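Our example copied in:
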Amino acid sequence: MASTVEGGDTALLPEFPRGPLDAYRARASFSWKELALFTEGEGMLRFKKTIFSALENDPLFARSPGADLSLEKYRELNFLRCKRIFEYDFLSVEDMFKSPLKVPALIQCLGMYDSSLAAKYLLHSLVFGSAVYSSGSERHLTYIQKIFRMEIFGCFALTELSHGSNTKAIRTTAHYDPATEEFIIHSPDFEAAKFWVGNMGKTATHAVVFAKLCVPGDQCHGLHPFIVQIRDPKTLLPMPGVMVGDIGKKLGQNGLDNGFAMFHKVRVPRQSLLNRMGDVTPEGTYVSPFKDVRQRFGASLGSLSSGRVSIVSLAILNLKLAVAIALRFSATRRQFGPTEEEEIPVLEYPMQQWRLLPYLAAVYALDHFSKSLFLDLVELQRGLASGDRSARQAELGREIHALASASKPLASWTTQQGIQECREACGGHGYLAMNRLGVLRDDNDPNCTYEGDNNILLQQTSNYLLGLLAHQVHDGACFRSPLKSVDFLDAYPGILDQKFEVSSVADCLDSAVALAAYKWLVCYLLRETYQKLNQEKRSGSSDFEARNKCQVSHGRPLALAFVELTVVQRFHEHVHQPSVPPSLRAVLGRLSALYALWSLSRHAALLYRGGYFSGEQAGEVLESAVLALCSQLYKNLWGAVLQESKVLERASWWPEFSVNKPVIGSLKSKL
């Protein structure tokens, strides 16, 4: 693959012009082009190049240096730019099914330009669109074409002013009237207003509205999604009975119009119910293909998981940008040196390497995980669309829900911490607005909250694991899941007998060492959380009280350790597969090991508390291994950074980077 590009197609991955980073680039022991081809594939690289080239040459995407747009103008431009993306038709509906990874690739390309644009496109096409596709039936397919022609513009309305994470307390109702064969969508008061809904503020014409479905006889069947028109597509005026508006300026992502809506006895046709999980007959009888309520719930989780999986990708994009900016700056910024006459780049210092390189490794590991989890989600949605009601399909929904609920916190928090570290690692210059780090930090911040508060979401994952253990204890069931993320737990009594036996740094420089430790850690935390929960119940606490008392030091670290293990496991398998080019095995192995050991080091106290670590040597070996891997990667750094920096270079339409070159080394200055 590499030879194809090296030999003929230099336009796809052209060489960088000579510049101040040539000395670093020359140190790489492998080809950055080969790495780009391995991680992306030639087809995906061409797809991204097509997108960047179109945006670079379109005046609508030009920026004026120093311009400070008003909120109204920014949102107007963002909508027009989103509309233009659909006009380019980078990704047809057919392409989405044929090459699903093009979906997150397109969103990441848009995020390189502006996260508000990426979020706006994602909410309309993926979150709103996938909710219609996965929760609807054949009668709703006409909406899909309208979505991609932008004949309608959509949003996903679940959260209310007084309730977000607690979806069972959502108060919007949908009462069925058999006389007219209509549902009556109603907000009982302002606290039940749909709130924080992206695209709803100014531009959405339709919403997937979650409401409690009630049929005659006051029989309610829980939350169900409905397609509700909220504005006239031609005038954007509210529909009768709908009060809709913008919630105002936010801390970041202000190109995205978050809004609110209240419904006053709004009547919609019976066919507006997205009826894959449950339906209502014309006479008013509720029917569902799922006899088991648990299966129906598992199958319904796909639409909730899609937004969370997408946030993982968006968060990692922000980290990619921040890490590339900070490393480029660190390689050119000189401070101090062995003599008064000689100053060296700050990247030469082990402290700077330790601060930044683990986040570079995190980019690779989490980016691979986000792609693999997206493909898992596609499998789930295809099963839903084909009418698969098997136990495996329901279990797949629950497993993806558990993984998505923990990976969003992991990705958004890692990025939050990483951007701050990058900002500080760039010193005073990192505080300048032109370097984009402040924008990235503010735009990433909502990733920690929307689609579910991170700490609340982690409870979903720990509850999933506790449920599996309870099933095993009471029924003797094996630990099995469709994606095999929990299968290792079958050996959990034996795993708990293991100890950390690595005695040298050299033996620790492999992600397999961290994998073994993570498996022990998850087993230990699962056992401790299960015992703590039962102890609290025996002491008289209700189930609600007992679970709350278990979160801080048990459930929360359990969920994080589980998802970190899954990320490490998938990346370890990816970089050790036979198809990895020989020249890339060393650097990919180091990236995998660094992310695994660096993440594991944050759990050192738990490893000691549970007895997996003992004595000073274990902790010292782990710390030394992280530093050794940082040093090894530093010597080969620029091959790993080049592919992301080459993409960043395409963002030459971002004026803050094409001017003010002397300050931080703009994105136009090539590696």
Remarks:
- The first helix runs from residue 2 to 7.
- The longest strand covers residues 219-229.
